[in-house]
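WxcM-like domain-containing protein: structure, please.
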Amino acid sequence: MGKWRTIELPQIHDVRGNLTFVEGNRHVPFDIQRVYYLYDVPGGAERAGHAHKRLQQVIIAMSGSFDLHLDDGTRQETITLRRAHIGVLLGSMVWRVIDNFSSGAVCLCLASLPYEESDYYRSYSDFHSNLRNRD
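Here you go.
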């Protein structure tokens, strides 16, 4: 997989509207321990700006769109999310920045661990240093 990949979630199409669902250890490769979402993000603002030591995560644009900038110290990629049935599965040790939120965008995050501040790298230089130390 590398450190991240795009995943497609199930869709049930209906004339009354579509439905997508997510099951832990089926559609995502972990037990979902935490769910949170970002919304009402002001124009020009960016979110995230961190990496996780152990946590895995799926990020989905539930409404609107935004850009997800990813960096594992070797590879960098920007993915625009705009469909509620498409997510990005992130492994640990991936620096992420989320920006370019459209009006009304909602970013849903499914996490493999409860919140734990000690799991975060909040400084890119600390993150990058620890990548080198793992080799």
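Notes: The longest helix spans residues 124-134.
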